[in-house]
From TrEMBL:
Protein name, as recorded: Lactate utilization protein C
Boundaries of every LUD domain copy: 49-211
Gene3D superfamilies: NagB/RpiA/CoA transferase-like
Pfam families found in the cross-reference section: LUD_dom
Species this protein is from: Streptomyces lateritius
Amino acid sequence: MSSRDLILGRVRAALTDVPADDLPYERAVQRGYRQEHGERTLAETVDLLAENLADYRAIVHRTDEAGLPELLARLLAEHGTRSVLVPRGLPPHWLAASAAEQIQDRAEDTPRELDRIASVVTGCAVAVAETGTLVLDGGPDQGRRRITLVPDHHICVVRVPEQVVSSVPQALGRIDPTRPLTWISGPSATSDIELDRVEGVHGPRRLEVILAG
């Protein structure tokens, strides 16, 4: 008898006294969780997002849709970016004002090749105010997960208000769990046993977030 057979046998034995008409697990367990903490206006929710993003050492900018191309161009220039990685579905006008060479995401690019590119610009799927978290799901304006993990500088554009929610439960209701999800709370960082913080170990060293709306 294999370990699998042994475990399944014990599960069946434990369920022998369960009535056939018993409620299924997903109905029997109450899931009336609180969807958010407190009551906030939309403006307060966006302010909370900005505050928590900054608390995680992300650099937060605000602009309207018309000012987005100029802001992106300025941020890339200030970073000294000569080449920027672009997801295939990124709106073309976002980078229309930038002088940086735009490099399209390609499946055949190796991590070493991606590491030579200074910056990446993406959108996001949803942003969570209470945790200061950006969620990417590999959508057309975000590209594959690795393009947001290898370059040292990531600029993420959040559309306000449609992509901002208060809480993680609200975010989960918006995303498809079968998609490749990346949850980002600030730039990549870790610390050793003496709590010396090191950034850029397993993701971008610098994260800039633009709240555009």
